Amino acid sequence: MQPSRREYNIVVLGAGGVGKSCLTAQFVQNVWIESYDPTIEDSYRKVVDVDGKSCILEILDTAGTEQFKIYLKTGKYCLPYRLILEALLINGFLLVYSITSLTSFQELTPIRDAILRIKEVDDVPLVIVGNKSDLEGDRQVSKNRANHLSRKWGNVPLYESSARRRQNVDEVFFNLTRQLMKKHSGDGGAGAGSGGTAGGGRRKKGKSCIIL
Amino acid sequence: MSVTTMLAPSTRNSAASSTSSGFVPVSRQNTITSSEGAPRSVRASKRYSVTALYLSMSAQDRDLEIEDELARVQKTLRDLKSKISSQSKKNFVLEKDVRYLDSRIALLIQNRMALEEQNEVASHFDESSEIEGGTFPNDQKTQAYGNLFYLLQSEPRHIAALCRCVSMAEIDSLLQTVMFTIYGNQYESREEHLLLTMFQSVLSAQFETTPEYSSLLRANTPVSRMMTTYTRRGPGQSYLKVVLAKQINNLIEHKDLNLEINPLKVYEQMIKNVEEDTGALPANMPRSVSAEQAAENVQVQAIIEPRLTMLMEIANTFLATIIDNLDETPYGIRWICKQIRSLTRRKYPDAKDHIICTLIGGFFFLRFLNPAIVTPRSYMLIDSVPSEHPRRTLTLIAKMLQNLANKPSYAKEPYMARLAPFVANNKMRINKFLNDLCEVGDFYESLEMDNYVALSKKDLELNITLNEVYATHALLEKHSEELLSGRDTQHLRILLEELGAAPAQVPRKENRAIDLPLFSRWEGNIDDLSAALDITQEDVYFMEAKSIFVQLLRTLPATSAAARRPLNLRKIGDTATTMKDMGMFRKGMRGLELLNQLQEMGVITDQDNFQILREEIEQELVHLGSLKEKVMEETKKLEEVYKTIRDHNAYLVSQLETYKSYLHNVRSQSEGKQRNAGKQQKQQVLGPYKFTHQQLEKEGVIQKSNVPDNRRANIFFNITSPMPGTFVISLHYKGRNRGLLELDLKLDDLLEMQQNNHDELDLEYVQFNVPKVLALLNKRFARKKNW
Question: Where are the coiled-coil regions (chain B) (predicted)?
Answer without folding.
Answer: 63-90
